[in-house]
Amino acid sequence: MKEQSYYTAITGASSGLGKEFALQCATLKMNLILVALPGSGLRDVASQLRDIYKIDVITLELDLTKDEDLNKIVREAEKHPVNFLINNAGTGGSANFASASIQLIDTILRLNVRATTLITRLMIPTLLQRENSYILNISSLSAFSPMGFKTVYPASKAFIYSFSMGLREEFRHTNLSVSASYPGPMLTNADVTVRIIQQGYKARLGLLPVSEIARIVLKQTLKRKAIIIPGLMNQLNYWLMSIIPPSLKVKMISGMIRKEVHHVQAG
Predict the structure, then answer these.
(1) Phi, psi angle pair for 85, to nearest 5°
(2) pTM metric for this prediction
(3) pLDDT above 50: residue 222
């Protein structure tokens, strides 16, 4: 490992897609700064990557909804030559908006919107110092349609779409490339798996292994592609959503989510 090798910073890196990004970046011999919540198993992930791939892995167990923890990421990044930021951390959930807890709504907004925005702003001066640098923001196919019973989550992911494309244009004459990925459904953990199953077969049409999603997204990000939709079925879904009238689209998608919410309430 070269002492001056670059580092990739990944949020939400202890499980799911974030963990897979860490693994695949490690196979490319990228040194890593991994960020996840305390007690999420991040140190075990880091230890395995160090042992197998002989790279440097720094772990930061932080809560990205807290300002003081956001600043810790930047202070660590300033000590190392970071040239790649992957804003993967996010959260969601399905519920009737009127009965959703204020804490759940606030966490979605703080993590999906606020943390992503502020980390990006704080990291850009470091990224601009590199000969070539990258930002990858993880959005979702849900960004392209409002949804009943998931009102806040798709709105937060629509923000990521607009934010990322605006940044890309602003920095297009620099060394910094900004990409956004819009994965379809992913079986990232037991809770998500149950929710997808409850939504019915239509919700499962675009399922891809998390490892395949990470491979496609990383490859296209490093090729400086703007919008990355992994999987042919998800690309077809994106095209269909662009031509279906908005009023019909929101009814169709909300119907699937309603099944999940009613199933949970019945349980």
Answers:
(1) -120, 125
(2) 0.86
(3) yes
153 assigned to active site = yes
Contacts of 93 (CB under 8 A, 6+ apart): 100, 104, 108, 150, 153
Q: Which amino acid is at 230?
A: P
Active-site residue, selected from the candidate residues 157, 182, 238, 249: 157
The whole-angstrom separation of Cα 89 and Cα 17 is: 9
Q: Domains in the chain, please, with CATH?
A: 7-266 (3.40.50.720)
Cβ-Cβ contacts under 8 Å for 50 (sequence gap 6 or more): 56, 57
Distance in angstroms (rounded) separating the CA atoms of residues 235 and 220? 15
Angstrom distances, CA of residue 241 to CA of 143, 156, 250: 11, 18, 10
Q: What is the pLDDT of residues 73-103, one digit of tens each?
A: 989 888 999 999 999 999 988 888 998 999 9
Catalytic-role residue among 7, 53, 134, 153: 153
Partners of 58 in the β-ladder: 33
Angle at the Cα of 123 from the Cα atoms of 122 and 126, rounded to 5 degrees? 125
Amino acid letter, 262: H
Q: Answer yes or no: 219 catalytic.
A: no
Instruction: State the Cα–Cα distance between residues 174 and 193, nearest whole angstrom.
Output: 40
Q: If we measure between CA atoms, which residue out of 178, 264, 174 comes closest to residue 225? A: 178
C-alpha to C-alpha distance for 71 and 65, rounded to whole angstroms? 11
Q: When comparing pLDDT for 240 and 197, which is higher?
A: 240
Longest dimension (CA), the chain: 57
